[in-house]
Amino acid sequence: MTLRIGVIGTGAIGQDHIRRCSHALVGSTVVAVNDINQEQAAKVVQQQGIEAEVYASGHDLINAPEVDAILVTSWGPSHEEFVLSAISAGKPVFCEKPLAVTAEGCKKIVEAEMEHGKRLVQVGFMRPYDQGYRALKAVIDSDKIGEPLMIHAAHRNPTVGESYTTEMAIVDTLIHEINVLSWLLDDQYVSAQVIYPRKTSQAFAHLKDPQIVLLETAKGTRIDVEVFVNCQYGYDIQCEVVGERGIAKLPEPASVQLRSGAKLSTEILMDWKQRFIDAYDVELQAFIDGIKAGKITGPSSWDGYTAAVTADACVAAQRSGAIEPIRLPQRPAFYE
Amino acid sequence: MTLRIGVIGTGAIGQDHIRRCSHALVGSTVVAVNDINQEQAAKVVQQQGIEAEVYASGHDLINAPEVDAILVTSWGPSHEEFVLSAISAGKPVFCEKPLAVTAEGCKKIVEAEMEHGKRLVQVGFMRPYDQGYRALKAVIDSDKIGEPLMIHAAHRNPTVGESYTTEMAIVDTLIHEINVLSWLLDDQYVSAQVIYPRKTSQAFAHLKDPQIVLLETAKGTRIDVEVFVNCQYGYDIQCEVVGERGIAKLPEPASVQLRSGAKLSTEILMDWKQRFIDAYDVELQAFIDGIKAGKITGPSSWDGYTAAVTADACVAAQRSGAIEPIRLPQRPAFYE
Amino acid sequence: MTLRIGVIGTGAIGQDHIRRCSHALVGSTVVAVNDINQEQAAKVVQQQGIEAEVYASGHDLINAPEVDAILVTSWGPSHEEFVLSAISAGKPVFCEKPLAVTAEGCKKIVEAEMEHGKRLVQVGFMRPYDQGYRALKAVIDSDKIGEPLMIHAAHRNPTVGESYTTEMAIVDTLIHEINVLSWLLDDQYVSAQVIYPRKTSQAFAHLKDPQIVLLETAKGTRIDVEVFVNCQYGYDIQCEVVGERGIAKLPEPASVQLRSGAKLSTEILMDWKQRFIDAYDVELQAFIDGIKAGKITGPSSWDGYTAAVTADACVAAQRSGAIEPIRLPQRPAFYE
Amino acid sequence: MTLRIGVIGTGAIGQDHIRRCSHALVGSTVVAVNDINQEQAAKVVQQQGIEAEVYASGHDLINAPEVDAILVTSWGPSHEEFVLSAISAGKPVFCEKPLAVTAEGCKKIVEAEMEHGKRLVQVGFMRPYDQGYRALKAVIDSDKIGEPLMIHAAHRNPTVGESYTTEMAIVDTLIHEINVLSWLLDDQYVSAQVIYPRKTSQAFAHLKDPQIVLLETAKGTRIDVEVFVNCQYGYDIQCEVVGERGIAKLPEPASVQLRSGAKLSTEILMDWKQRFIDAYDVELQAFIDGIKAGKITGPSSWDGYTAAVTADACVAAQRSGAIEPIRLPQRPAFYE
């Protein structure tokens, strides 16, 4: 059985997922596309050499009988309506982050999905599909380091453009740590604080960079994440889990070790797209396989919702300088 | 277009490739299988849940009209005849190592293929498809370390069974280095010498272990490979290329770094099957994609032939203790 | 010229320094000792095979004409009076930490020394004499990483005894980071906050362990120090300086790399005494050489004073949970 | 008791040792110096600010009653006569390598010393005093890796001058491995072979560089040493001991780890003088302490002799291309 996929949004990431589902993954084919720019959608179909119908409306695509599942890769603010529409149609939907641009919007999706009675939504958080994070979680779950007490993490980019704002450090950058660290710890957040170190001279005037975000979880684990988006030297993701009896650290990406010019060195990636490139394949394959197996297991709309609430608290903490509470209900059994 | 594959030999590696071509790779399906034990072949078809015809004869399978390409994963001594049969049929064939059990047999295949006029054969050397070796080759080709002058390599297994003989250190173990190092250097071998260090007490009495094999290439590059198949501590593949201006080293497999029990450690694999597991997928995908693109690019029957000649010289060197010449013709333009 | 040293306090560290000044360092000899337990002092003289007079009074030792310089290694609460006495006598004095048990006491020493008109006091902070920290400072000062913006540090012990209190995490443990990080950054602290992560089950009931201390400097650099004194796995000192263009990390102590039992590992020390053992020699040699050169350059009474004020603020932050200001005057020119 | 030392030869290394024995080590003073250039000797005395008599004759210096021990740091060909003279005088003598320029010369020294009846000679091989090699030996001796079966080693310099000859790769460079590896293994050599890889374009025309030296020990352990003196990238000493159950590797010198410019790097030394700088202090302190304790324990004239015989065989192997036997008598009990 080949899963017939409809894709809403044919920008950069949409095109990349169309390529994956058409040429790289097993068991899927793209049969329908839609974009706010219909010509662009048609062009993508042609460029990728696929046989897919171009729909003028995302909702029509969702409801088309030949479409088994939907990928939402459109403009962020449109995610909520398309995901809700897919749930109405009772079709599985993979939605790139954010699930919705407000926590309230995410909550609506959670409620609609629960009412439907079965998971339909997978959110495009790819880090839980990264081999490194999976190996790290395996070490934690094996009890080799005992109960986790702290996480020291960093999310660093070489540079960002002028349009990148202080708030985006949370909603675009930290959002991945918000997702992956709660998954890693199997825990949720209860408070957030943001600290502004001395500002780098390499950032635009309007941007506070770097920032340190302090998160506390329900079990009391403390997390510090350095977000530094003009660090110059590389795209570098660090994660160190301090447990009661030992410390486990996310692997550095494998790299040739060089002895050259008085240095013993390995490479650090400069391009974020390379860092989790394999994880994108794995997450979408999991979505496809999950649908076929009748059980979607990846990041859920609940995860999307709690990430949104947590991000809101972090943004509040950016503004207040205070420790902001994160008020989340218990994870419903539906999402366990 | 889905490539319809016939598989000859349904033992462990055959089953693994059937699984790949049916469930893990893109663009192929297994439509026919054969095994010397026909019941076993039928059982595999059933277990893997595929729709494939069981052929009583490998040659019939090769000539079946619904079979586009052949995988030879049968008993080593049978490889030669099946590959020759596939060439006669003008069908692409992927043959697990060895291509043939004698250099002479390999040569016959080379001649048959050249007479056919187009490459049909890919030999199952998977290391050139490993990400680490590819990264290493990219560094060499980028001239970051200058011209390669030496390679220090090691091939270590935790233990081997009693049936493993001194000669197998060459034909089963070193054979992978013979292949991958000549690919890495784009060079071929001209002499071999074997040195026997003090024998480990962990090996069976009949086995000389470890061994050091010294190879010389046409360009004068010198290679030392430690083959140590009872090293106890892990399955460990090392490769360090010393160039005129620097040294490049094969990456260690990525692993969580642990601080625990007075040690800062990463894991070393114990199971060889894990080490190049991704490379098997890549090599077979390349075979499938190559056929579709009309151009097979992987390890060729020429590579299989030269590996056989080199292995023969190494075995001679094991016995003589002397430096044995390796006499190889120039690589024909056909195989460049 | 051999510097004639008098030692007040012949406990463990006093004995160690007597050994150093008698047998390991160049240009010094121990001629006088004092201890609250006079018998113990006499025994140490005998055991170490030195010719030194045993004084009943520390003050008499200080004023003895044959004593050129004093080491104060007695009980902490007695440091202040002996250091002041040495300043009165116009003699150089090396005082183990703490310089005094209160910030006020340290301030009196600073004032006495400034009144004397020349530096006489070196405080026993040894980390600035550690090769690793010196190499780290050299990298920072070379501008290889640009201006420092953040420091991530950790101070971990395998275990502590029942007498170790929550406050000692600051005054006994963090005190070394307080000293060395301000030296590293050439900066002083302006605020402190303490965070309590989930408590380890490996600590005594009365002890909050681990703790995270957040420090802010005058230039805006932000420091987080994990203090974890029951981490089980080793005595581990980490320090990573994040600059505008790169990151520099304190070297791990050199260790044989082992491939063994499916692990690639180096050793982590378990015993804190081994970690900075060379630095003790270097700091005392610097004291001796400084006196001979007429210029004491090591950690000053000003450094002792500011460390005390900073530690007080950290202890206040432990209790309040709030961000506590650290109010320090400008470093006087006298101490630059 | 202060050991009164006479130094023969006031060139670069002589000056360095004079500085050590006068200012850096404990328990020694330089009271006499001699050089073939008497003015130079006088100048050194003045520059170093020491009170030492300048002798016109090395032999007179040796026999001077105020001289307790001798350092021979003169021109290599003069070592033999001065060491023999010191033995005649019954005085301890530290001789820089080579002990004598011929194996025969070394043997004469061995015989003279044995006739004297007590060890007087320490040869200036400093690597056994290096912390890294000592840690490596401790691991071997602890049986953590089982019996050593192989050593893979490398001795690399960034560049050498035009005067450096192919033979010097043995007698000046490999000589350190010859010494330290037999000490490490507690074993002696029985054969040598030299292999010439493709020559680097960075070496002078007359020099064969790199070279690989293969040594075999009495216990059957096999050693390969890459000698590469124009490797460009650094002064790099590698040593990996492969045992029956694991592998131990000489520590890299501790270095700040840097994340900068898309690289994760540590420094490799360029200047050989920095690599073993601490070991020079330790070896001379051991000589001084050994004399005082009545027992010289460092590298002996026997070690100097066997190194010379081994080096001779390696040079023969350079010329013959064959495996050359190394014929050494059993180590006399006198030297155990």
TrEMBL record, chains A, B, C, D:
Record text on subunit structure and interactions: Homotetramer.
Broad class of enzyme this protein falls into: oxidoreductase
Encoding gene (name): iolG
Family: Belongs to the Gfo/Idh/MocA family.
Annotated Gfo/Idh/MocA-like oxidoreductase N-terminal domain residues: 3-125
Enzyme nomenclature, EC number: 1.1.1.18
Keyword Ribonucleoprotein included in the entry's annotation: no
Swiss-Prot/TrEMBL keywords: NAD, Oxidoreductase
GO biological process: inositol catabolic process
HAMAP family, sorted: IolG
Pfam families: GFO_IDH_MocA, GFO_IDH_MocA_C
Residues in Gfo/Idh/MocA-like oxidoreductase C-terminal domain copies: 137-322
Protein name: Inositol 2-dehydrogenase
InterPro entries documented for this protein: Gfo-Idh-MocA_inositol_DH (IPR050424), Gfo/Idh/MocA-like_OxRdtase_C (IPR004104), Gfo/Idh/MocA-like_OxRdtase_N (IPR000683), MI/DCI_dehydrogenase (IPR023794), NAD(P)-bd_dom_sf (IPR036291)
GO molecular function: inositol 2-dehydrogenase (NAD+) activity; nucleotide binding
Organism: Pseudomonas luteola
Catalytic activity, as annotated: myo-inositol + NAD(+) = scyllo-inosose + NADH + H(+)
Function: Involved in the oxidation of myo-inositol (MI) to 2-keto-myo-inositol (2KMI or 2-inosose).
